[in-house]
Task: structure prediction
Amino acid sequence: MPLKAMNHIENDEAVRYIKKYFEPRNNGRPLFTGSHFDSFDGGGGVEPNRITAADLLALEMLSESVRGQAALGIVESLADEIEELLVQVPEEAKLEEITEAEFERLLDKGSPAQQLWDLLKQNNGSRWHIGTTRASKILARKRPHLIPIYDTVVRREALGERSGNYWRDWFNAFQGAEGRQLAERLRSIRNESGETHLSLLRVLDIVLWMKGTGYAKVTETAGDEE
Result:
């Protein structure tokens, strides 16, 4: 579980991970391009209910790309359908704050977010090379406080080889007294790092990814998963 994974990381260590992630190279370019994923071209909140070309290009910051067929579908032919679903997922909703009932309404089976997930992955049609990793990053760009990024490194750090409902696992991590303590820890780590624009989910994602890669200067994903 994410909570258990964080219990093995001290706050000072987590702050170092965040600072390293946002550290520039000597030439001014980012050490990790993922540090610009949330803020690229103003961020996903510029047009909160539409997935734009800038949102898809932002995936390049995390070493992912969207092929032409998918890009045309998402930005053009499916744009209205996507907007209708995104409108139903409040931009202000935060995974660490929503109730069980809100989780079921927003993220569980049949919810708007799950419908978006299926639409992006084309689960009911002809697949177009958007798997779990890419779909999660697109949705996290639009709803960074609600949708966790799926990454094989982070999944391994948080869940080991266990499989299950990824969104549910992240939601459960913030439940109860321990969950509230985790949220407070992440807020403290975020404040100490100086990267106060990050969502708590993104703080958790970066810390676990940096821990899992050992600071290695590698691409930010081990590949998309269908």
Notes: Confidence is low (pLDDT under 50) at residues 219-224. The chain has twelve helices and no strands. Residues 176-193 form the longest helix (18 residues). Residues 150 and 166 are 8 Å apart (CA to CA).
